[in-house]
Write a structure and sequence with these properties.
The chain is an alpha+beta fold. The protein has one domain. Helices cover 30% and strands 16% of the residues. The strands form three sheets. It has a seven-stranded mixed β-sheet, with helices on one face. Helix 1 crosses helix 6 and helix 3 packs across helix 4. It starts with a strand and ends in a 12-residue tail after the last strand.
């Protein structure tokens, strides 16, 4: 099963027109992502045994507590190895995330509102915090908007540091709000504790990511260093980026969902290996699922 995500930057009345997602040159390139199921031959044989009935995962919305480390990561992601505190459900007991329950928890969490940074979700959070439609948020409104998307700001000193790091002063625009939410949530997925939740999950370490950046005159094909890939933008000459993920890596799928603001339903379909062919259009991207046939030659003994 192969899944292609075609990203159309921004909304437009003309479906063929590619527009920037935000008013920034860094987001003016077109991106396509291909996610393929790793061939079964690549995996070691699994022990057989009696299948136990699935358990019901305890699901609570994830929250992230703003910290000095998370603010540092948001503005200098490649310079600060210390990352923010693990984002987990506050009332959840992580000791039960093992055995049969852990993979189910990981599957369900793709639909957690914490990982939804789609334009419609963040637009709603911004406008709910700005009832007068002024187009900017005061510090108190900014705090309320952050908390509505699962980012808690209980440390006043850290919150003031975040405000001081914003380039446009205390008045927060919608573009600034969306950008900082993306950075804070993406940084959380690089925290060691968060990554530890995925260890031992089926196929969690099997995926391979390759990137092809190209324009009408240049091409670069490489296997990226993940931290740099997810926290930086392509070179200015890149007009189109093709990302190939071989295998179903739930952690990197979540990172892709936040970096490119993918719809949670599309990501859920990506995880489902038995999904039938389909085509969906969302506000900022198109989503395609279709099977791939592999032709192999078998020698016969004469």
């Amino acid at each position: 099963m192969s899944v292609f995500d075609y990203f159309r930057r921004g909304t437009s009345s003309n479906d063929e027109e590619l527009l920037p997602l935000v008013d920034s040159p860094a987001h003016s390139y077109t991106t396509s992502i291909n996610v393929q199921q790793t061939p079964k031959a690549d995996f070691p044989p699994q022990p057989t045994g009696t299948m136990q009935p699935p358990m019901t995962a305890k699901f609570n919305p994830t929250e992230h507590h703003l910290s000095a480390e998370s603010v540092s990561f948001a503005f200098s992601p490649t310079s600060h190895p210390q990352l923010p505190r693990l984002a987990v459900p506050l009332c959840d007991d992580l000791t039960h995330l093992n055995g049969q329950l852990e993979p189910e928890y990981i599957h369900l969490s793709i639909l957690d509102p914490f990982f939804d940074v789609t334009p419609s979700r963040l637009h709603l959070a911004f406008h709910e915090a700005d009832p007068t439609d002024s187009g900017v948020l005061t510090p108190d409104q900014f705090r309320a908007a952050l908390e509505s998307v699962g980012i808690r700001c209980r440390d006043e000193a850290v919150f003031q540091t975040l405000l001081g790091s914003m380039s446009h002063g205390p008045a927060i625009s919608q573009a600034d709000f969306e950008r900082i939410v993306q950075k804070l949530k993406l940084g959380n997925l690089f925290e060691a504790g968060t990554m530890a939740l995925f260890r031992g999950a089926e196929n969690s370490n099997q995926s391979r990511i390759e990137v092809c950046d190209f324009s009408s005159k240049r091409l670069a094909l490489y296997k990226p260093e993940l931290r740099s890939f997810f926290t930086t933008e392509p070179a200015p000459w890149v007009s189109c980026r093709w990302i190939n993920m071989q295998g179903h890596d739930h952690l990197n799928l979540k990172r892709l969902a936040i970096k490119y603001r993918l719809h949670p339903l599309a990501m859920e379909d990506t995880i489902e290996l038995n999904e039938r062919p389909k085509f969906d259009t969302y506000a900022t991207h198109r989503f395609v699922v279709f099977p791939i046939l592999h032709h192999t030659l078998r020698r016969t003994c004469s």
